[in-house]
Amino acid sequence: MTVKKIEIGDVFPTNQGCMATVVEYVNARKVLIEFNDEYRHQRYVYASHLRAGKARNPFHKSFLAFGCHGVGIYKKDIGGKVTEEYQAWRNMLTRCYDPSYLNKAPTYIDCYVCDEWLNFQKFAEWYTANEFYGAGYQLDKDLLVQGNKIYSPKTCLLIPQKLNKALIENTTLSRDYPTGVCYDKSKRSFAAQITMHGKHKLIGRFKTPELAESAYISTKDAYVKDLAVEFKGSIDDRLFIVLMNWTASNRR
Description:
Elements: E1 11-13, E2 19-27, E3 30-35, E4 42-45, H1 47-51, E5 77-78, E6 81-82, H2 84-97, H3 99-104, E7 112-113, H4 120-129, E8 138-140, E9 150-151, E10 157-159, H5 161-168, E11 181-184, E12 189-196, E13 199-206, H6 209-231, H7 237-244
Parallel strand pairs: 7-9
Antiparallel strand pairs: 1-2, 2-3, 3-4, 5-6, 8-10, 11-12, 12-13
C-alpha cells in the first residue's frame, strides 16, 4: 500500500485531541507543523510521528483539562525527581479543579487560577524568581487579600510551613462550639485549647463558650504575632505586616 506523501496544508489529528497543519515539508525527519488553536505553536516533527498522532502540543490543556506545560526552560522533573515549581503548580491546580480533592476540601470550591498561571512556564517563572524559592515554603493565596479566591501573581506569596499551619489549624473538637473550644464534662466547664509549636496546649477552662473563645482568640493572636517576629527577615515584608494585624476573630 502506497502512503500518500505529506504536503503543505495537510491536517493531522493528534493523540491529545488536537489538530495540526503542515506548514513546511523538508524531509521525512523534518516536517514543520502548526497546531490549530489560539497559540498557533509551530514545531518540527518526524513524518512517522505525525502520521501516528504522536506530535505533542505543549499548549494542550493536559493537566485536569485546565493546565498546559507551555514552552520554556522550566521542567516537570530533573533526574526523575519532580521539581519544586512543578509540584507547587500541580498542587495549585488540584486544589481548584480536581473534583475528588474538592469533595474532601470544599473550602476550595469556586477558587480558580488566573489564565497566565494555567501555563506552567509562566507560573514557574514567577515562582522561581521569588526570593524564598528553594526554602520549602508553601503557596498562599488569601493572606494578602482576605477571602481571595484566585491564584495570581498579585494575590499570592510564599509562606513558611510552620506559619501556614498555625494560620489554618482548626482545633474545634465539636461543631457545637467555636474553633478551639470544647465542653469538658468532667470539669463541667468549657475548655479553650490551641496547638503551638506542634504541641497541644490547654489555655484554660471557662464558664461559657464565649469566654473560652475569647481566650482562644487572644492566645492565637499573640502566637501568630510571635511567629511573625520569629520569621521577620525570612518572609515577605507584606506578609509580616499582615501577620502583625492578623486576628483569629476574622477566621471563625
